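ok so I'm stuck.
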Amino acid sequence: MAVARARTLNGMESTPKLRLSGPGSLIAAVPHLLGFPPEQSLVLVGLSGPRSRLGITMRADLPPDGADYAPSVAELEPLVEALRRDGAAECLAMVMTECPDGEGLGPYVDLVANLDEALFEGGMEVSDIVLVRAGRWRSYLCPDPHCCPAEGTAVPAPSGELAAYAAYSGSVVRDSRSALIEMIAPDPESISATERALDHVCRELAEASSKGASEAYRERIEDFIDRRVSGLAACAPRCLTHRDAARISVALIDRPLRDRVAGHCLQETASAAESLWIELLRRLPPPLDAAPATLLALSSWARGDGALANVALDRALDSDPGYSLAQLVRTALDHALPPVTVREMLGYPAEEAG
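replied:
not stuck anymore, here's the structure
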């Protein structure tokens, strides 16, 4: 099952707390927690403490073979382990689908049964497991039709408090996960132009190397990257030529340089740097796009945007399955490590680079 993870909306210590009560308000908040409205998804929200503090939110694709197929208890155990690692003691699970009922039962009942068993075996309290369909929700576990009618209860509109909180915290909700994929999708014409420019850039690099000036050449490109990001941050960018894109892509092959420019994700220039990485992803062929995709994933993860981080990582690893930094970030996300881990990951290369 493909899994995406995101932080809770109040995951930043400097941000005021938001109070959500009951499954309905949590369901309404899910698009803000994930960054997009999930479809055909299993969503798990971790809760902890006597006041059920929001923790990690995880989304997994529902089985592609249909509602009659269910992953085993063992296959669901990693999700439970991620909840426990985040400190959750309780879980609210949501099956978000448009699949109809079958034989008087809700869809994915075997999945629900196995998930309930996996949570029980993992020592996790089950707040509820609910079906969310057509703007309504009902519990899989409550047998009382007066409490949980068969037609379900309407999912409430997002509260004004949630909207204000999302605006304060910078939470962005895209139309769908597909919108994220489209945002960084390669443009064939731009890629063709960059590939032609790569011939020129490779000759530049070969000439610099023959003169013993390859390090100085990379330093000029690194300085160009920093100036480009500063220009974007100041809303004064200049056109990025095809040769510029090619030069940056070649420079990012150098790992120490890549790790140094990754430091933008921890600075006020993070958003501007993300714009540059996205622009490169539109214009670079594989495997050269693996580096900017991973840098975009690092930056997105650092600010808690798990949805974009996962989409960018998919792009990086599809392009270059052996790209070690992308593998490292994927492992960290799969183990539900918090965004602060980015600082720890970038600290070591920065010290090594002086």
